[in-house]
Amino acid sequence: MPRWRSFGRLIGGAAFFLLGGTTAATLSVARQPAHPAAARAVDAATPSANRIEVSPAAMRQALAAGQIDRPVKSVLQVPARMQYGDFKWDDAGVPAGPLWIRVDTRAQLISVFRAGHEIGTAVILYGADGLETPAGKFPILAKLKDHHSATYDAPMPYTLRLTKDGVAIHASDVRWGLATHGCVGVPEGFAKQLFAAASVGDEVFVVGNPKRA
């Protein structure tokens, strides 16, 4: 069964770096409540009311902690707590550039970045015990718009395949009580946007679970 994690946008010592719309995740080492005196994870908002600029200090800390693997310039403004099935996609004003995806199985969130700016975020499903979603860096190996799993006899629309043994990002019924067999399940509206934006070779960075041997 998926585990819901609360999240905020604070950074406290080495314990917290919040990345993503409300997104991406409480990247917490200690997983403790943020202290009132904690410094902000982000600086003042950028000219767009829909984005928040990531401070250089927060970015450096997240890089050092291995929670991101490249610089991030801004994240989406998501004022309310996201629920199962929720997502946000807003690439207005974001320039063309490299796209990469960050998945946090502990926070149960995905973030999509283009040219260093977050353009999409969603609540996800991930692999249950014994069939965990593996952590690590994975290039997108294939795009399959109308894929149907032969192994599980189940539709997997807007599939972005990450491993040769079938781990993928794909559209799912994202709701409480469901899990995947190791894939990353996202709301169908989000999956459609991501499928259109992503290309074979784009990298997906998964954190939160042990790396697959």
Keywords:
L,D-transpeptidase catalytic domain-like, mainly beta, disordered N terminus, 2 helices, six-stranded mixed β-sheet
Structure description:
It is a single chain. The chain is built from two helices and 15 strands. The protein has helices at 56-64, 188-197, and strands at residues 10-11, 39-40, 42-45, 51-54, 74-76, 87-89, 99-104, 109-114, 117-123, 136-139, 142-149, 154-161, 168-171, 184-186, 203-207. The protein has a six-stranded mixed β-sheet, covered by helices on one side. The model is unreliable at 1-47 (pLDDT under 50).
Task: Summarize the helices and strands and which ones pair or pack.
Layout: E1 10-11, E2 39-40, E3 42-45, E4 51-54, H1 56-64, E5 74-76, E6 87-89, E7 99-104, E8 109-114, E9 117-123, E10 136-139, E11 142-149, E12 154-161, E13 168-171, E14 184-186, H2 188-197, E15 203-207
Parallel strand pairs: 7-15, 13-14
Antiparallel strand pairs: 1-2, 3-4, 4-5, 6-9, 7-8, 8-9, 10-15, 11-12, 12-13
